[in-house]
Write a structure and sequence with these properties.
Helix 4 (about 175-190) packs across helix 19 and helix 8 (about 265-285) packs across helix 14. The longest helix is centred in the C-terminal third of the chain and has 23 residues, at about 420-440. The chain has 20 helices and 10 strands. It is α/β, with parallel strands linked by helices. The protein starts with about 90 loop residues before the first strand and ends in a 9-residue tail after the last helix.
C-alpha cells in the first residue's frame, strides 16, 4: 500500500478530575434543544430491550436481565455518562503544530476562532527525541512535523494571548514529557505578554507521557525503559498532588494501531500498559482513588466501523472491572475510562487524497457512536504533508456536521443492544484477556516489552495485512483498485526552510541572555536527585525550566545518570 508519512498522533484529553470540573467534562443536564429526527419524530434519551416490539414495557429502564446495563453505570459498556452527548458534546480537539512557536500560536488562534474547543500541541521530531534545534541530528527536521520547543521562552510564545486558566491543552510528547510539562507549568505561572499567572491547580489538559508504547510502537525515546518508567511515575505522583485538573498520562493505543496492530492487540496492549502504570503508582504509596480518575486513554478510530465501536465498549468494561475488582477502587470515577480518539492516519492514502474525507468521516462516526470524550479528525492531505488551513477546516467541519446535522447525538448509545455489536464486544473482551494472560506469564508488561513480545505480535499483524493488500484480497480504493490514471496534484502546506534558522537563532538568543551559572546549578541539582531513585524529579526539572535550561541540556544531564537506550532487534 503506497502511502506517504502518516500524520503525527496526538494525545487525548477526556474530562473530569475533581470539582470544579475541567472544560471537557460533559454537563449533567441536557443541552437546551428538542431531540427529534429530521422528519420530526421524537427521540428519547435512552433505548433498551424494553423498546423492542415484543416488549411490554416502554419505560427508560432496562429489564433486570439486560447484560449491558445503563450508560453512566458500572461497567460503563454503554458510556461513562448518563446523558452522553445530550448533556454536552465531545471536545473537538484538532492537532496543530509547525515551524516556530509564533506560527503555531497563530494556528491555535485560528482554530479557536473557527469553533475548536480545546488545543492540542504537536511537537517536531527534535523536540520529541530530546534534541535542541541546533543539534546535529535536528538538521532538516526543525518545525517539520510539529512545533519546535527548546526552552521556556518558546513555551511562553506558543500560548501567547491564550488564557491557560480557561482553555484546556493537550501535548503529544512522551520521552521528554516531564520536561515539556515543566516548561508548561513555568510558562503558565509567568506574566509574559501581560498574561495573568495561572497556578498549576488551575491548569487543565493532558500530556501523553505513555512511555511503554514508545518501546512497543512509536520508537521515540531518550532513556532506558526503567528510568523512563520512573520519570513517568514521578509525573503522575506530582500531578496527583499539585494539578487536580490535569491528566498526567494519556495511555495510548493509537500508535500501536498505526504500527500495524489489530484492533484486539491495540485494546489488549493499551489496557495492559494502563494497568502497569496503576501498579507503579500504588507501589509509590498513592491511593488508587487519588490518581485513577485522572488517567485517560487515547484510541485509534479505524475503518472497520463496528469493530471499532466494539473495541471502545470492551475497553470501558474491562477497565471498570479491573479497577474495581483487581485494584479495589471505591470511587466510581476511578472505574470510568475516559478516552480521546483520533481517526486513523495509517488509513489515509496519498493516491486520490480527497477520498480521505470519506474515510475520516466514517472513522469519526465510529468514535462518536463508541462514546469518545474528545476527537481529532485527520485532514485529507496529511498523507502528503502537514495540513493546509482549508483541509483543517474541512476536518473540523466533519465533526461539527456529525454533532449537529446527523442526529447521532440525540440518544445515548444508539447501537447498544445490536446483536452484532454486543457479540463483537464480548469477543474483543475475551481476546484482551487472552493477551493479558500471556503477558503475565512473561513477567508483566515491562518484561514483555524487553522481550519484544508485543513488538513481534504487531509486526506479524502488519505483515499479514500488507500481504492481503498486495494480493488484492483486501481492497483499498484508489490504491489497488479503482485507480485513477490522471490524478492531479493538490495544494499542500510548505514549511519555510528559513524557519529552522529562525528557531536556531531564538535558541541561541535565549542562551545568551540567561544566567549561565544558574543553569549549571539547576542541572547539577537535577543530576544529584536523579542518582537517588527515591527522589521525585519534577521539582528539580521545574527549577531547570525556570532557569531557562534547554530541553537538550536537560536530557543530556539525565543521560549522564540514566544512560541511553538501544533497541533489541525484534527478529
Amino acid at each position: 500500500m503506497a502511502v506517504s508519512p502518516k500524520p503525527r498522533a496526538q494525545d487525548g484529553e477526556p474530562a473530569q478530575t475533581s470539582a470544579p470540573a475541567p472544560p471537557d467534562e460533559p454537563a449533567s443536564m441536557p443541552r437546551e434543544r428538542t431531540f427529534r429526527t429530521l422528519s420530526g419524530e421524537p427521540v428519547r434519551e435512552l433505548y433498551t430491550a424494553a423498546d423492542l416490539p415484543a416488549g411490554a414495557r416502554t419505560g427508560a429502564h432496562p429489564p433486570a436481565d439486560d447484560p449491558i446495563g445503563l450508560p453512566g453505570s458500572y461497567p460503563f459498556t454503554r458510556g461513562i455518562h448518563q446523558t452522553m452527548y445530550r448533556g454536552r458534546l465531545w471536545t473537538m480537539r484538532q492537532f496543530a503544530g509547525f515551524g516556530t512557536s509564533e506560527e503555531t500560536n497563530e494556528r491555535f488562534h485560528y482554530l479557536l476562532e473557527h469553533g475548536q474547543t480545546g488545543l492540542s500541541t504537536a511537537f517536531d521530531m527534535p523536540s520529541l527525541m530530546g534534541h535542541d534545534s541546533d543539534h546535529a541530528r535536528s538538521l532538516g527536521e526543525v518545525g517539520r512535523e510539529g512545533v519546535a520547543v527548546d526552552t521556556l521562552d518558546d513555551m511562553q510564545t506558543l500560548f501567547s494571548g491564550i488564557d491557560l486558566g480557561e482553555v484546556s491543552v493537550s501535548m503529544t510528547i512522551n520521552a521528554p514529557a516531564v520536561i515539556m510539562l515543566a516548561y508548561f507549568v513555568a510558562a503558565a505561572e509567568s506574566d509574559a505578554d501581560g498574561r495573568q499567572p495561572v497556578l498549576p491547580e488551575r491548569l487543565s489538559g493532558t500530556i501523553q507521557a505513555d512511555i511503554l508504547k514508545e518501546y512497543i510502537a512509536q520508537k521515540e525515546w531518550c532513556f532506558p525503559i526503567d528510568p523512563a518508567m520512573r520519570l513517568c511515575g514521578d509525573m503522575i505522583e506530582w500531578c496527583t498532588r499539585r494539578m487536580p485538573r490535569w491528566h498526567p498520562i494519556s495511555i495510548s493505543g493509537y500508535h500501536i494501531r498505526e504500527a500495524g496492530s489489530t484492533a484486539q492487540q491495540e485494546l489488549a496492549f493499551t489496557l495492559k500498559d494502563g494497568l502497569t502504570y496503576v501498579e507503579q503508582a500504588l507501589e509509590r504509596g498513592l491511593d488508587v482513588d487519588e490518581f485513577a480518575p485522572r488517567l485517560s486513554f487515547f484510541f485509534n478510530a479505524h475503518l472497520d466501523f463496528f469493530e471499532e465501536i466494539a473495541k471502545y465498549r470492551a475497553a470501558r468494561r474491562i477497565w471498570a472491572r479491573e479497577m474495581r475488582e483487581t485494584f479495589g477502587a471505591k470511587d466510581p470515577r476511578s472505574w470510568q475510562m475516559r478516552f480521546h480518539s483520533q481517526t486513523a492516519g495509517v488509513s489515509l492514502t496519498a493516491q486520490q487524497p480527497l477520498n480521505n474525507i470519506v474515510r475520516t468521516t466514517v472513522e469519526a462516526l465510529a468514535a462518536v457512536l463508541g462514546g469518545t470524550q474528545s476527537l481529532h479528525t485527520n485532514s485529507y492531505d496529511e498523507a502528503l504533508a502537514l495540513p493546509t488551513e482549508d483541509a483543517v477546516t474541512i476536518a473540523l467541519r466533519t465533526q461539527q456536521m456529525l454533532a449537529h446535522e446527523t442526529g447521532v447525538t440525540n440518544t445515548v448509545d444508539p447501537l447498544g443492544g445490536s446483536y452484532f455489536v454486543e457479540a463483537l464486544t464480548d469477543r474483543m473482551e475475551q481476546s484482551a484477556y487472552e493477551y493479558f494472560k500471556k503477558i503475565d506469564e512473561l513477567g508483566g508488561m515491562v518484561d514483555a516489552v524487553k522481550l519484544n513480545y508485543p513488538q513481534r505480535e504487531i509486526a506479524d499483524a502488519a505483515f499479514a495485512l500488507q500481504q492481503e493488500i498486495d494480493s488484492g484480497e483486501r481492497i483499498v480504493v484508489g490504491v489497488n483498485s479503482y485507480v485513477a490514471s490522471d490524478e492531479q496534484p493538490i495544494p499542500t502546506l510548505r514549511v519555510d526552510p528559513a524557519l529552522e534558522q529562525k528557531q536556531i537563532g531564538r535558541l541561541q538568543a535565549a542562551r545568551a541572555r540567561r544566567d549561565g551559572a544558574a543553569v549549571e546549578r539547576a542541572l547539577g541539582a537535577l543530576r544529584e536527585d536523579a542518582a537517588h531513585e527515591d527522589r521525585n524529579l519534577m521539582e528539580p526539572l521545574l527549577a531547570c525550566a525556570r532557569a531557562h535550561a534547554s530541553e537538550g541540556e536537560i536530557v543530556e544531564s539525565l543521560q549522564r545518570v540514566f544512560g541511553a537506550y538501544t533497541e533489541t532487534p525484534v527478529f
